[in-house]
Amino acid sequence: MGISLLTSWPEPVQRVQLLAESGLQHVPAQYIRPPAERPHLHISPAAAAAAAPTSPLAKSCSRPQQGGSDSGNIPILDMEDLDSGDGERREAFLRDLGRACEEWGFLQIRNHGVEEAVMEGVRSTAGAFFKLPIAEKQVYANDPVTYQGYGSRLGVSKGAVLDWGDYYFLNVLPSSSRDVTKWPTNPPLWRHMMEEYCKQMERLSKKLLQAISLSLNLECTRSLEEAFGEIDMGVRINYYPPCPQPELTLGLSPHSDPGGLTLLLQDFKVAGLQVKALSTSSWVTIPPILGALVINLGDQLQILTNGRYKSVEHRVVANSNCERLSIACFVNPGNSTVVSPIPKLVPKNELPAYNAMTFNQYRSFIRRRGTNGKGHLDSIASPTSLTPQTINNQA
Ligand SMILES: O=C(O)CCC(=O)C(=O)O
Ligand SMILES: [Fe+2]
């Protein structure tokens, strides 16, 4: 891992929103994925008709524009079952949670306690930022050292295929990691909404970590929180403009999230997020559900659980007629926390499946290389658990 950090992007940064707004009819070459990585969109004549400019946006956007299965069985859990005081409902919730973490690495939750007004507030102020004049947004342009601010690419590999999306990334916790100069002052409510949203997300993430600890039968409800150490939290607002040729590109390349737990507020009008089902390796769309949150496990939880719970590859498909906005809150182990499998989860007489590493080391590795499916996690699997294929992939 002896590659030094680049302090600026390897090529001039293009804002995808500007490209989209220029009215171009073809996706520029650097956004075109090799045929095997394209999303195989099947746009039916009916969907194409619905996409005509005169049709109501919400009608044509709510339908996923994709091939493969529609929603599969990505579990939807009701957090009231956890809080109800009814022992059986609680047990069933923990069992379903454990199964979701093992079989999908993804779930949706309802009745999670995050106020609707706060979700709506953060969504609308975050969206309003992207509508500001470009010069105002450029003041917050980010760099590949901290990633904080207004960005358009992940990773610094020169010549990499780019994603059809812009984003805004911020460190939120610990407070010492915040760069307040990167917190927009316009829209005026932006800071307040983000602060409130993140507070509620932090509370919810702790509750989820406790529930996940219980689902694993760990000694103590706080086992995972303790393994995380001081929580590191970041938030990324993803903005995907409409795309003239969504069948050639992706809004976000396949990746697993590097951290602990991701709490995602999807765009409730526009589908686009897809998960690579562990059972079939096919891409499954996560349907937007108003008021629900998508929860997914990151690589650090796969490491801590010695591979029992999974961080699963996901991607975002672009959309020909609708913009899409999502807000991902990444809850991670502390920067200097050394993460390795929890001993109780390593079978007797076996070596841990992953080598120990601080979260900071892991993250900087990914920030240099950009998204790479699950290749980063495979690369720290301990030699005993490497398959010939993963070894070849690392070469
Ligand atoms: O936009 C989405 O729905 C997913 C975003 C995502 O996977 C991420 O920000 O890591
Ligand atoms: Fe992600």
From TrEMBL:
InterPro entries: DIOX_N, IPNS-like_FE2OG_OXY, IPNS-like_sf, Oxoglu/Fe-dep_dioxygenase_dom, Plant_2OG-oxidoreductases. Residues 54-84, 376-395 are annotated as: Disordered. Residues 62-72, 381-395 have a biased composition (Polar residues). Pfam families: 2OG-FeII_Oxy (PF03171), DIOX_N (PF14226). Keywords: Iron, Metal-binding, Oxidoreductase. The keyword Signal does not apply. Gene3D superfamilies: B-lactam Antibiotic, Isopenicillin N Synthase, Chain. It comes from the Eukaryota. Signal peptide: none annotated. One of its GO terms (molecular function) is metal ion binding. The keyword Methyltransferase does not apply. Residues 231-333 form the Fe2OG dioxygenase domain. PANTHER family: OXOGLUTARATE/IRON-DEPENDENT DIOXYGENASE (PTHR47991). Belongs to the iron/ascorbate-dependent oxidoreductase family. This is Fe2OG dioxygenase domain-containing protein. It comes from Adiantum capillus-veneris.
